[in-house]
Amino acid sequence: MRVVAAMSGGVDSAVAAARMVDAGHEVVGVHLALSQSAATLRESARGCCTIEDAGDARRVADKVGIPFYVWDMAQRFKEDVVEDFVAEYTAGRTPNPCLRCNERIKFAALLDKALALGFDAVATGHYAQIVDGPGGRELHRAVDPAKDQSYVLGVLDADQLAHSFFPLGDTTKPQIRQEAAERGFSVAKKPDSHDICFIADGDTKGWLTRRLGEQPGDIVDTEGEVVGQHQGAFAYTVGQRRGLGLKVPRADGAKRYVVDVQPRTNTVVVGTQDLLGIDILAADHARWCGPVPVGELRVGAQLRAHGEEFAAVAVAEDDRVSVRLDRRARGVAPGQSVVLYDGTRVVGSATITSTERSRTAQG
């Protein structure tokens, strides 16, 4: 097969590209330029897409002996990921930009361009497995639970899976670093990027404030009493406890958490931890990694990357999904993604629009 290996400049994508060459494929390395003003040097382990990263990817491609190109997708990334991220926070939701990037950039823009140029598939360094099942290719969890990235790949549909390779899914991260060292890759000990790649310092609140400006408003308790002030409701998310700066403590001294963000009134609502427990989810923008489920389906529901899996029942209708958890989950915010599993197989994903708390659930 003719395969595009997406090379970020990190150790995972380096080994993935090398393994595709070893498997006998005709491989071309591609680094995606996603920043319109890429930094010269990586400032920490958080960022990515720096000039340094592109250079690291090129050196690996040279060592493996494959052609290497940089594809400029900065404008597409800005529109489909960064602006979506800002819009979601402005609307009081908490998005996951990694899922949007996988859906709209790596497995839409990149894959579409690769197929248009005559390639057969795209390979990435994600930790997940593709298994040939009775109904076609299936997406499964990686063998390394600490690195499993099937959650952020839950947006892929069956056609995209048919043109995807994840060569690292059967390997642990320490093994990948050892393999990279044995291959002589300079990135063998390079730190992983993490959190949000376009917020290199990890300060989401500061980044959003610089983008949107300060928007002062009230922090209120569940009775409507003003207990503090904020500089922008967009900077808060359900379940948040730190950085609230409340002026009026509860009489019983109980800690308070964000339980609601109301963008129309620019209000943040805080309450006690017990109010965070929910067990009913409504979600839209459903994406299925195979056939659309019919009727009720017993699933495992994962609500955040590397979060625990909750036993649940899901019902799909058009592009919407309703999910009832067997026990309550805490701190679930609209905008997060729920990814559904059947064992290790990813069934699909959807974006949470609302949550509820039944009277009967435990937790």
UniProtKB/TrEMBL annotation:
Binding site for ATP: A6, M7, S8, G9, G10, V11, D12, S13, L32, G125
Primary role: Catalyzes the 2-thiolation of uridine at the wobble position (U34) of tRNA, leading to the formation of s(2)U34.
Family: Belongs to the MnmA/TRMU family.
tRNA-specific 2-thiouridylase MnmA-like C-terminal domain mapped to chain residues: 280-352
Annotated region (Interaction with tRNA), positions in chain: 147-149
Compartmental location: Cytoplasm
GO CC annotations, alphabetized: cytoplasm
Lineage per the UniProt record: Bacteria, Bacillati, Actinomycetota, Actinomycetes, Micrococcales
Record's protein name: tRNA-specific 2-thiouridylase MnmA
GO molecular function: ATP binding; tRNA binding; tRNA-uridine 2-sulfurtransferase activity
Marked site positions, Interaction with tRNA: H126, Q336
Keyword Glycoprotein attributed: no
Domain tRNA-specific 2-thiouridylase MnmA-like central: 207-271
Keyword RNA-binding found: yes
Active site annotation, chain numbering: C101, C197
Keywords: ATP-binding, Cytoplasm, Disulfide bond, Nucleotide-binding, RNA-binding, Transferase, tRNA processing, tRNA-binding
Substrates-to-products reaction catalysed: S-sulfanyl-L-cysteinyl-[protein] + uridine(34) in tRNA + AH2 + ATP = 2-thiouridine(34) in tRNA + L-cysteinyl-[protein] + A + AMP + diphosphate + H(+)
Class in the EC hierarchy, top level: transferase
A Pfam family annotated for this UniProt entry: tRNA_Me_trans_M
BP terms from Gene Ontology: tRNA wobble position uridine thiolation
